[in-house]
């Protein structure tokens, strides 16, 4: 069998959360979310998110953040260009129970969702760079990717790895406000590379209920191995979405973003040594994150949340193979309609970045000594002083998901 040229898939995401003193109406946002709860037609996206996150989290004991939406969107594009066993595996792993056009319509709706957001900045961008010498892109696929995924295409010189890497990295940096840099190296680009698919997701939001910088103070964070880490713990006492989840041995808190339908959902295990058990359960269909969200109830909660920043890079081929996606990485790959010749996928990389805090770290540090001890209260207390899971979600999809093992690590 003739060898196939290769294709690289690169994904990146950036999420920046900045707090302000603005207050918004929780009931209005909760009502909007309840009226637009996850449609059964979108539930396959959450099933894929849970499975992928569990595989990655299991092999990465440190801090983790990924954008399952980015991975799923690229797999959806490849679905449209595949046949045979490759198509079967993509449908199984990606939970694609529909044909490729219906899947594309779902992603088209989610990509356009950002146009209706007012209080947050959400950018999704996809691009296909193809080898100008080894063969052109399939024109039908090019039109399909543009219409449904808003994906641009551009011919590049794969013989000149330095120039092409710079071109791609510049596009990535621009798409993520310079938060994701140097995603691809010139060594990854050779004359045998047929195409490089890139996906970027950028999110910036402000809390609906603010954390005051004057309430931030040093605190101990219990690590899984029994040690402790010193962190900057933000504090607030306000009305939030809160739920006790005994079947997960955890509690949940929802922090809404200002003037939008997006939120951060935090799952805090009741003990600091059971994070892996929680993540394993989240891979089950009955515990996907968007099914947990409707159980949240509005009530006054005393919240403690550490500031944290994570930059995470992951080769996704191993976890995807563990989920059952194998043939498209082999010489017998049946990705036949993306370019003018069959190709195999050689790399799928994702680089993601998240920054959660008030946005004024130096000022917060100066106010540590001015805070008094809290009084005893009958309100529910949610203090994330041990490893936890977080997700940035809309009513119909999970944009980012990760876990924090040690907020003191960047």
TrEMBL record:
The keyword Membrane does not apply. Keywords: Protease inhibitor, Serine protease inhibitor, Signal. This is Antichymotrypsin-2-like. It comes from the Eukaryota. Residues 1-22 form the signal peptide. SMART domains: SERPIN. Residues 50-407 form the Serpin domain. One of its GO terms (molecular function) is serine-type endopeptidase inhibitor activity. Gene3D superfamilies: Alpha-1-antitrypsin, domain 1, Antithrombin, subunit I, domain 2. GO terms for cellular component: extracellular space. SUPFAM superfamilies: Serpins. Belongs to the serpin family. The keyword Signal applies.
